[in-house]
Design a protein that fits this description.
nine-stranded mixed β-sheet, 282 residues, two-stranded antiparallel ribbon, alpha/beta
Length: 282
């Protein structure tokens, strides 16, 4: 497949496109990355250098791709960290141009807003843009638990709350929702969960909680889930494959004591996960 991926990029480490592009390529797909920022490293280090690209730069690059006459062959568009709310308009314009060229193309929005413990970490205006404009446009959405609560205005205490919130998000636009970094009152100690919901049902995937905190895992799993969903057309199968792969990469990263995802060193996990976790219908 051919995937247009519009999100941040770093020279050192693996977040944004630097985390999402290679796993999709390793699975055999062509990826057309458009970078919303070009930073030296992710902002979790507390210091970084590099520019946030203006919305016109995003449009200009997309126009150049469009002029190659290839948009009818684009199977999906993926967006993540935006850097600035104005970039959102350029992303939605790109999605509209892709869908005008190929009505079967799907849009996956990874609504990067914040996380439990950190709160909102994006610039003003971005959370509201995600909620009011990006999510209604999306076919697939991949929020974490914190983002799902913000987008739906619902607090998540137990699994039923999580399912209800995911269904509420579906009613706002996306047909399929993947909830990442899910921990409810029913999650066993030492575990973490993923929840995938579409019109066919809801499925939970539970893995061990690893002693690690790294940036970029959400970007990778959004990309993995999206391409597996495009390939299999099954949220349960996409959940199993994406969740098992990201667990393998995170385990290798934790075992190595690395601050950055071992995206390259553990690349076999994208193709043949060392441990396969089975989703459960809930």
């Amino acid at each position: 497949m051919n995937i247009l991926s519009i999100q941040s990029h770093v020279a050192y480490g693996h977040v944004g496109n630097a985390s999402a592009v290679f796993p999709m390529q390793r699975l055999g797909h062509e990826v057309w990355p458009i970078n919303t920022v070009q930073f030296s490293n992710h902002t979790g280090y507390g210091a970084w250098r590099g520019p946030v690209f203006p919305a016109d730069a995003i449009r200009d690059v997309l126009t150049g791709v469009e002029e190659r006459g290839v948009l009818p062959g684009c199977d999906g568009a993926l967006s993540g960290y935006m850097g600035d709310a104005a970039i959102g308009d350029a992303i939605l314009d790109a999605v509209a141009r892709v869908k005008a060229a190929n009505a079967r193309a799907l849009y996956c929005c990874d609504p990067v807003i914040g996380d439990v413990g950190r709160g909102v970490f994006v610039r003003p205006g971005i959370p509201e843009f995600m909620r009011d404009r990006a999510i209604p446009t999306a076919d697939v959405a991949t929020p974490n638990q914190f983002e799902l609560e913000f987008l739906t205005g619902r607090k998540i205490g137990d699994l039923d709350d999580a399912k209800a919130a995911a269904q509420a998000l579906r009613s706002a636009g996306p047909a399929a929702v993947l909830v990442t970094s899910l921990q409810t009152s029913e999650t066993p100690e030492g575990s973490i969960e993923l929840l995938a919901v579409d019109g066919e049902g809801a499925f939970r995937l539970r893995t061990p909680l690893l002693p690690i905190s790294v940036n970029g895992a959400g970007d990778a799993i959004a990309a993995l889930f999206f391409v597996h969903l495009l390939t299999t057309r099954s949220v349960a199968e996409a959940l199993a494959l994406a969740g098992s792969s990201i667990y393998g990469v995170l385990k290798a990263t934790a075992d190595a004591g690395s601050r950055e995802l071992l995206t390259v060193a553990a690349q076999e996990e994208f193709v043949r996960p060392g441990t396969m976790f089975a989703p459960v219908a809930v």
